Amino acid sequence: MAKSANEPRWEEVVERLVSERGESLTRYAYLVSGNSDDASDLVQDALVKTFGRLRNGFTIASAEAYVRRAILNTYLDSGRRISRWRAIAHLQARPEFDESKATETEERLDLLSQLARLSPRERACIVLRYYEDLKVDDIAEWLAISPGAVKRYLSDGLSKMAISLTNSGEADRA
């Protein structure tokens, strides 16, 4: 195909198209997709599809028509891909059975049994600190004891639980 001397090069056509009609193309893509992020992506994809191969001989008007058609086709193609995926998504492999929750239950029961071994003040301090997420001063005010006593109960209770859980873990391995 012979190129005439006054015909604009494709780079110039793209540059002018984006500067003069870019906002209009983006608005069109927004109306098609309903999302501004998708609209920008659609315009970029359409420009690449239209000018991906060296194409000369376009005027601004004909290039805009090609890009608008590419925007619509790209949007429709993505919709087809999504609907196809939805049709086969149920075919994904899933395990025949779920993993047992027994270990989580055992850990929870172990924690409850460890809490039962603590003194009432130690247990109260640990529950208020780690379950209710209270600060030491708030626990002291709640239990009407000094913050130092709360720290001591927390330390003693956590030490007892750590020793007990460690010992029971070693007993399980033996």
Explain what this protein looks like in three dimensions.
The protein is mainly α and 174 residues long. Helices cover 75% and strands 0% of the residues. It is built from 7 helices and no strands. The protein starts with 9 loop residues before the first helix and ends with a helix.
Summarize the structure.
The mean pLDDT is 79. This protein is 75% helix and 0% strand. It has 174 residues and is mainly α.
Key terms:
7 helices, 174 residues, 75% helix
* Number of E-state strands: 0
Please state roughly what percent of the residues sit in beta strands, choosing from under 5%, 5-15%, 15-25%, 25-35%, 35-45% or over 45%.
under 5%
> What is the 3D form?
elongated
Number of helices: 7
Radius of gyration, in angstroms, nearest whole number: 34 Å
> Low-confidence parts, pLDDT < 50 over ≥5 residues?
none
How far apart, in Å, are the first and last alpha carbons?
85 Å
Instruction: Please state the average pLDDT score.
Output: 79
Supply the helix-strand structural class.
Answer: mainly alpha
Report on the biggest sheet: none
The helix/strand series, from N terminus to C terminus, equals HHHHHHH
The residue fraction in helices comes out at over 70%
Strands, helices and their partners?
Blueprint: H1 10-33, H2 36-51, H3 60-88, H4 102-116, H5 120-131, H6 136-143, H7 147-173
